[in-house]
Specification:
By secondary structure, the chain is of the alpha+beta class. Helices cover 60% and strands 12% of the residues. A 5-stranded antiparallel β-sheet has the order 2-1-5-4-3, sandwiched between helices. The two termini are 83 Å apart.
């Protein structure tokens, strides 16, 4: 989902607009209306109830949405319980104000409800399993942050200016600040750990609520901030708006993108523990600079610094142990993978964007008879058959334009003996992968299968006896010959008496000799064929009538010469019909050639009687 789509939905959402507008109007009233207490504080608590209601209703809606996801369903159900606790706390304080029991200090009932809500918050965040996180380091981080916040609390409690503040106010404010800080930390860890039930924009609003709450509850009660009571209350309203806007924004997101979001890769490290150590150490330095006397405040900061530093060292040792274990696993995997590659019958190449080979697997020596290092650094075209070069380049041009795409093709590569091997290559574009930066070619030797396929295709398209094209291949080529095209229809004269008199083996030898003589008479682009029995044909693409007649005369002359078969000297003739036309109507062209051939037979001056066999004196 695009962030712009969610932003557009949020900018037009009535609930979010009402939250923002309500906070602006109520804040303006609190700051500028000059209302007296306890009315102003009563209004402050009363207006928080609608914000809590938005939080509760949004959490309930998300609970129903994630009914099929047990983990996310439990998370938002706990969020709804926390929102309900906040609703009860704020509603009770508003009722206290209405009946005249209001005070500006947080009461024990509200503090209890708010603490329950925060505890449920923490439980929801801790209970949700992390996909990409290490739970031991996660818990250590939580403890480090807890002690860091404790150090901040100690620093504030032991500040001389805190002595003038109400002790209950200070303690409750700092406790709330610690809880809110921990909630913010857990939310950050949850979002960054992988598959999260809350998106980053929604979590940002909720974390911002925690930060604002911590600042206004931890600092204002101790340090005399130059803010009016109305401005202070306006700031305290902001966390309610933010924490209600977060779940509402998540409702809008699932409305735009209802399908579950895929897990996002988390960072392999976290800077948060080290940031906590830095803050605690800065507080210790600040304590020494302000009051170098050894007192309770200094001892507390020293203990906090030692604890936090020790926990960070423990965390670092765990990370080093995990790294050592991972390095061992990587070494074993590398050895396992190297063994697989070394003994694989398939060859793997990596070719960069300049067609230069950057990697060759050891199988190259078995497949091509060439050591892998001899192929690295040379262009693939130097080993590629010239007839396959253009086809491969065209395919790779399209492949380079589609990162991650794959393309399968069969090409010929030169072997060490200067021969050729057919390889079926699966080419995958990994040019954008930093560790590879090339096209990966997985090559399988298919030479034997290719030769068998070619042999079967040849047998299916050629006459077994004469090795000329058969009727099927001849018809296919005639249909695609275009225009003009010449056609010879050849029928042997006197072949049947030879076959009957001397046997089929002599007849077969005569047919083979005839086929060879026809093959010698035609052009390389022509297709001589045996259509069956003693019927032959020649297809001549692009031949005009004069060219066709010239080839027919040549064929007629060579077939009139005697054929020597062992001790026999046999003579056969041929009636040849010539037709010139277009391959668009092959049947019509064949009929024209056959008709011309039969006219030649009728005009022939020799009979169909058996030609006398003569002793062989020379061969043709």
């Amino acid at each position: 989902m695009r962030r712009s789509g969610l932003l557009g939905a949020a900018s037009t959402d009535v609930v979010l607009l009402a939250l923002v507008l309500g906070w602006v109007l109520v804040s303006a009233w609190l700051i500028f209306a000059g209302a007296d207490e306890p009315g102003r504080t009563t209004v402050f608590w009363a207006v928080q109830f609608p914000g809590d209601s938005v939080f509760f209703l949004s959490a309930r809606r998300l609970t129903r949405h994630y009914r099929g996801d047990r983990k996310a369903h439990r998370f938002w159900r706990l969020m709804a319980v926390a929102a309900a606790a906040f609703m009860v706390a704020d509603l009770l304080r508003a009722i206290e104000g209405v009946v005249g029991l209001e005070s500006t200090a947080p009461g024990p009932v509200q503090l209890t409800c708010f603490s329950v809500g925060q505890a449920v918050f923490v439980a929801a965040l801790i209970a949700y399993p992390m996909v990409n996180g290490d739970r031991r380091r996660f818990l250590l981080d939580a403890v480090i942050v807890f002690f860091g916040v404790g150090a901040i609390i100690w620093f504030l409690l032991t500040d001389p200016r805190a002595a003038s503040a109400n002790s209950l106010d200070v303690f409750s404010a700092l406790l709330i600040g610690a809880e809110v800080t921990l909630v913010g930390f857990l939310a950050v860890k949850l979002v960054l750990s992988g598959h999260s039930p809350v998106s980053l924009p929604a979590a940002t609003l909720m974390i911002s609520s925690a930060i604002v709450q911590m600042l206004q509850t931890s600092v204002l009660p101790i340090y005399a901030a130059p803010l009016s009571d109305g401005a202070s209350l306006a700031i305290q309203l902001l966390p309610t708006v933010l924490i209600a806007a977060g779940p509402r924004l998540e409702v809008l997101r699932v409305g735009i993108e209802p399908a579950p979001r895929p897990p996002e890769p988390g960072r392999p490290y976290s800077l948060l523990p080290y940031a906590v150590v830095a803050v605690v150490q800065l507080l210790l330095i600040g304590t020494l600079l302000v009051d170098p006397v050894v007192n309770l405040r200094l001892w507390g900061m020293v203990v906090a610094t030692a604890l936090v530093s020790t926990l960070v060292v423990v965390r670092q040792l765990l990370s080093m142990s995990d790294n050592e274990r991972l390095i061992g696993q990587l070494g074993r995997q590398k050895e396992w993978f190297g063994s697989l590659v070394a003994h694989s019958s398939d060859m793997t190449l990596v070719v960069d964007d300049r067609d230069v080979v950057t990697y060759v697997s050891p199988a190259a020596e078995r497949v091509l008879g060439i050591r892998p290092e001899r192929l690295v650094g040379v262009k693939l075209s130097q080993s590629l058959h010239v007839e396959d070069f253009d086809r491969l380049q065209v395919g790779w041009a399209a492949l380079r334009a589609a990162p991650g795409a794959a393309w399968t093709v069969q090409v010929r590569l030169r072997t060490a003996g200067r021969g050729w091997r057919w390889l079926e290559t699966i080419n995958t574009n990994l040019l954008e992968v930093p560790a590879i930066r090339g096209i990966v070619c997985n090559c399988r030797d298919v030479t034997d299968a290719r030769e068998l396929q070619e042999q079967l295709r040849f047998q299916a398209e050629h006459d077994v006896l004469t090795q000329l094209a058969n009727r099927r291949l001849f018809t296919e080529r005639l249909a695609g010959a275009g225009s003009p095209v010449g056609l010879l229809a050849i029928d042997l004269d006197g072949f049947k008496p030879i076959n009957d008199t001397h046997g089929h083996h002599v007849g077969d030898a005569v047919l083979v000799a005839v086929a060879e003589r026809i093959r010698r008479c035609v052009r390389p682009t022509d297709t001589p064929a045996r259509l069956g029995g003693d019927e032959f044909a020649v297809l001549m693409p692009g031949a005009a009538a004069a060219n066709a007649e010239r080839i027919a005369t040549r064929v007629r002359a060579v077939l009139a010469e005697p054929i020597v078969i062992g001790a026999l000297r046999l003579s056969v003739g041929a009636s040849i019909g010539v037709a010139v036309g277009t391959g668009d109507d092959p049947d019509s062209l064949m009929r024209q050639a056959d008709a011309a051939m039969y006219r030649m037979k009728r005009r022939a001056r020799f009979s169909d009687a058996t030609w006398p066999a003569e002793p062989a004196t020379d061969g043709v």
